[in-house]
Amino acid sequence: MDQARDDYVERFRTIARDGLDELFVPGRRAGFAGGRLERFAVVDRGASVHAETCFSFRGHHFQYERQIWPPGFPLEISTALYIEHLRERILTGRYGPEADPEATIEV
Predict the structure, then answer these.
(1) End-to-end CA distance of the chain, in Å?
(2) For residues 94 and 91, what is the distance between their CA atoms, to the nearest angstrom?
(3) Cβ of 69: how many Cβ atoms within 10 Å?
(4) Cα(79)–Cα(99) distance, rounded to whole angstroms?
(5) Sign of the torsion formed by the C-alpha atoms of 82, 84, 85 and 87
(6) pLDDT confidence of 26, banded at 50, 70, 90?
(7) Number of Cβ atoms within 10 Å of the Cβ of 34
(8) How far apart are CA 6 and CA 77, in angstroms?
(9) What is the mean predicted confidence (pLDDT) over 44-71?
(10) pTM of the full predicted structure?
């Protein structure tokens, strides 16, 4: 990887991790109260880099993945979009009790 890519990806990792940690604070109204962050990773796929988040919430397992390199937006906007899109998809989705609790839901 070139230096600009390395720097961008590392800064994304740090900022996004802070945002994800805030989502899982117990009692936080806008977060995933009762949820548990299982894994956050940045994965190099050659020409692109993806961020992956795995977590459990309300009895379901979720996986969220999004390309972060090459960037479509400046770093601060990309990290905010990553966190907000994840929050929106989970809080507005319908995941009923009939869903297999052992299956991972990709969002």
Answers:
(1) 28
(2) 8
(3) 21
(4) 30
(5) positive
(6) confident
(7) 12
(8) 18
(9) 95
(10) 0.89
How is residue 63 written in tokens? Answer: 């996986």
Strands ordered across the beta sheet of 36-44? 36-44, 49-57, 60-69, 104-106
The conformation of residue 103, written as its DSSP 8-state character, comes to S
Q: In this structure, what token pair is assigned to residue 98? A: 């009939």
Q: Looking at the DSSP assignment, which residues form a beta bridge with residue 52?
A: 41, 65
Pairing of strands 49-57, 36-44: antiparallel
For residues 52 and 64, is the Cβ–Cβ distance under 8 A?
A: yes
Give the integer Cα–Cα distance in Å for 80 and 75: 9
In whole angstroms, what is the distance from residue 107 CA to residue 101 CA? 15
Peptide bond into 70 cis (omega under 30): yes
Element (H, E) at 55: strand 49-57
